[in-house]
Amino acid sequence: VPLHLPWIDAIGELKRQRGAVIMAHSYQSPEIFHGVADVTGDSLALAQAAADCDSELIVLCGVHFMAESAKILAPGKTVLIPDPDAGCSLAASITADDVRALRAQHPGIPVVSYVNTSAAVKAESDACCTSANAAQVVEAIAAEFGTGKVIFLPDRYLGAWVAQQTGVELVLWNGQCEVHEKFTAIEARHTRERFDAKIVAHPECPPDVLAEADFVGSTSAMGRWLAQEKPARVAMITECSMADNLRNQFPQVEFIKPCNLCPHMKRITLPNIHACLRELRHEVTVPDDIARRARTALQRMLAVGR
Ligand code: 13P
Ligand code: SF4
After folding, report:
1. Which residues sit opposite 201 in a β-bridge?
2. In the chain, at which end, N or C, are there fewer CB atoms within 10 A of the end residue's CB?
3. Is 70 exceeded by the pLDDT of residue 178?
4. Where are the domains of the chain?
5. How far, in Å, from the CA of 281 to the mean position of ligand 1?
6. Nearest in space to 155 (alpha carbons), one of 119, 188, 179
7. Structural domain 2-86+266-279, CATH architecture
8. In angstroms, what is the span from residue 219 Cα to ligand 1's centroid?
9. What is the tens place of the pLDDT at every residue in 204-213?
10. Residue 167 to residue 154: CA distance in whole angstroms
11. Which ligand is nearest to the CA of 262?
């Protein structure tokens, strides 16, 4: 931490001068999450914070689709991302043309897209969801459209899990998170048996990994589960910074590996946050027509809540 202090102080000073708000996803490194962020949370919490934000300038420490969502929900604000190349394998797996083709194949079936998609894909969707409210959004949209079938994209593992929770028939896309798809059931079982640890897994993991878990839940649900269950030892089968950032909050819990790093989230650093505030770069923009249609899908998600 001492190495980071000069950057943290300098960012704090620039942030005050600019009147900026720094929002950081739970997968950001602890020096960002604890050191410089004003708002922290999962992708749903960040979208809600952007929609309610008072500041004219938002610095989004997360990946590009999160900054786009912030811009869509706060169209009058300036949204900056410290590294515009912070992508996501899920967002990269599907285009707006793919969504139009799916609709043509399944006429009349509504589309729910995970927020881990581009603004152009959101614009083609009836509603968005995050892992925190995917089941609730799918049920709400199925009821609204009076159908037992929904097109759910792009994460096939999250989709399979949501289908199990809801009983709604889902048409899935072949997208995966490159971080969560790497976990294996053997590794999870070994961790439980060898370390007597509870296994908590994100629903972006493959189904055989989820079958080994004591709890499956989104980024925010994992924190609530820990507060309730207070396990002696736990393995968070998700991005490594989750455990790093929760350690302070749960000093009595021992966090065990495995975990995987998201190379996209890790593109955001204290130096590039500083440069972002100093030079007011890199501004995120979304064409008006796409933003308007994507906003409707995002607002439907916010109306469902958690
Ligand atoms: P949330 O749990 O915040 O939706 O995030 C999952 C994820 O992989 C974000 O990229
Ligand atoms: Fe995308 Fe996976 Fe990284 Fe999240 S963890 S940003 S889903 S690649």
Report:
1. 216, 237
2. N
3. yes
4. 2-86+266-279, 91-176, 180-261
5. 24
6. 179
7. 3-Layer(aba) Sandwich (3.40)
8. 6
9. 999 999 999 9
10. 19
11. 2
Question: Are domains 91-176 and 180-261 of this chain identical in fold?
Answer: yes
Q: Which fold has domain 91-176?
A: Rossmann fold (3.40.50)
Fold of 180-261: Rossmann fold (3.40.50)
Question: Which tens digits make up the pLDDT trace of 99-147?
Answer: 999 999 999 999 999 999 999 999 999 999 999 999 999 999 999 999 9
Tell me the CA distances in angstroms from 232 to 148, 199, 250, one per residue in order.
42, 12, 10
Going by pLDDT thresholds of 50, 70 and 90, the confidence category of residue 2 is low
Which residue's alpha carbon is at the smallest distance from atom 2 of ligand 2? 177
Asked if ipTM goes beyond 0.95, one says yes
Residue 177 alpha carbon, nearest atom of ligand 1: 8
